[in-house]
Design a protein that fits this description.
single chain, 369 residues, alpha/beta, Aspartate Aminotransferase, domain 2, Aspartate Aminotransferase, domain 1, 2 domains, seven-stranded mixed β-sheet, 13 helices, 15% strand
Length: 369
């Protein structure tokens, strides 16, 4: 699904030098490379504050902790995402309120958000799924009209550009009040281990979240908040500085692979290729098909037998997971999500896909049908 070794080989010398420099410095925790990467990412994202942290799940939790929420406050998000999105809401004693998705983009449906708002609603977490942004024009309007905060889960979309209806341009993770991302190795900007970051243009909020990530300290041994120990490792920061230079090229490689897939499947009526939302660039963290006529699982088995590691993201909506039965949702509550869960399959998508591989994958899919 992801050729990390091939990508490493392409930039091996730079990566090795960056790692060795940290080892030589012995500045393993909060070394200079962390600040360097922070500044580079602020410039790339065109955002005032980047707060590096230990992983993408921590990034979401830290963002919520920065908002002075009370137990029982409601956070609206999607049931079609990785578990971390609602996991942190529950851990903080907040209430996840799920709403259904758009059947074409798989992102949260703004019309469903508006219906779900109550007096306890405090924030919305749109997930920019598979590499493209949710409809942020509508979501921002809803948030403004209802005095809500927006925390973007941009773990799958770092580098994706968004064009507002008024012509303004921003990047995924910088469009709301707070953005979060993950540097898990398979992400478009991936470390060689765990890592994450928070983005905000609110300097005071950025200072607060940075303190919370550092045990609640602004000044050493003086604690202003209940905090976490959530640090981006210095070696990971050094690696990410190298890879950030190539992020746009990496995303272009993914887009080129997606275009090849699209062209190869244009006459394959049994599948639907990914829909590009008009306002968002799609940087294809995943290339996800919808398979018609109940053949998805058979296609997956067929491809796996041919050495093609197709995957299902996600097989079950979060409202149907055993750990979250306390939310009170039942089968049928989110019909679009449930239908999509039975149809989606993701094909290999990474920066090192070559034409021979793409040809084999696409011919295999078409052979099945």
């Amino acid at each position: 699904m992801v050729d990390l070794k091939g990508q490493y080989e392409r930039i091996k010398e730079e990566i090795n030098e960056s790692i060795q420099a940290v080892i030589d410095s012995t500045a393993f925790i909060k070394g200079p490379a962390v600040k360097t990467f922070q500044n580079e990412l602020e410039n790339y994202m065109d955002v005032k504050r980047v707060i590096p942290c230990a992983n993408g799940t921590d990034a979401l939790q830290l963002a919520l902790m920065g908002l002075d929420l009370d137990p029982g406050d409601e956070i609206i998000t999607t049931p079609f995402t990785f578990i971390a999105t609602i996991e942190v809401i529950q851990l903080l004693g907040l209430k996840p309120v799920l709403v259904d998705i758009d059947p074409e983009t798989f992102n949260i449906d703004p019309e469903k958000i508006e219906i779900a708002i109550t007096v306890r609603t405090k924030a919305i977490i749109p997930v920019h799924l598979f590499g493209q942004c949710a409809d942020m024009d509508k979501i921002l309007e809803i948030a403004e009209n209802n005095s809500l905060k927006i925390i973007e889960d941009a773990a799958q979309a770092i580098g994706a550009g968004y064009t507002f209806n008024n012509g303004g341009i921003g990047k995924a993770g910088t469009l709301g009040n707070i953005g979060t991302t993950s540097f898990f190795p398979s992400k478009n900007l991936g470390a060689f281990g765990d890592g994450g970051a928070i983005f905000t243009n609110n300097e005071a909020l950025g200072d607060k979240i940075a303190a919370i990530a550092n045990h609640g300290m602004k000044k050493r041994y003086y604690y202003d908040y209940v905090g976490l120990n959530s640090r981006l490792d210095t070696i990971q920061a050094a690696i990410l500085s190298v890879k950030l230079k190539y992020l746009d090229d990496f995303n272009t490689a993914r887009q080129n692979a997606a275009n090849y897939y699209d062209d190869a499947f244009k006459n394959t009526n049994e599948i639907s290729t990914p829909v590009r939302f008009k306002n968002s660039e799609h940087i294809f963290h995943q290339y996800t098909l919808k398979v018609k006529n109940g053949k998805r699982d058979s296609l997956k088995s067929f491809l796996n037998e041919k050495g093609i590691p197709a995957m299902i993201y996600y097989p079950v909506g979060l409202h149907m997971q055993n750990a979250y039965k306390n939310l009170g949702y039942s089968e049928g509550d989110f019909p679009v999500t449930e239908k999509i869960c039975s149809k989606v399959i993701s094909l290999p998508m990474h920066t090192e896909l070559n034409e021979q591989q793409l040809k084999y994958i696409t011919e295999s899919v078409n052979e099945f049908f």
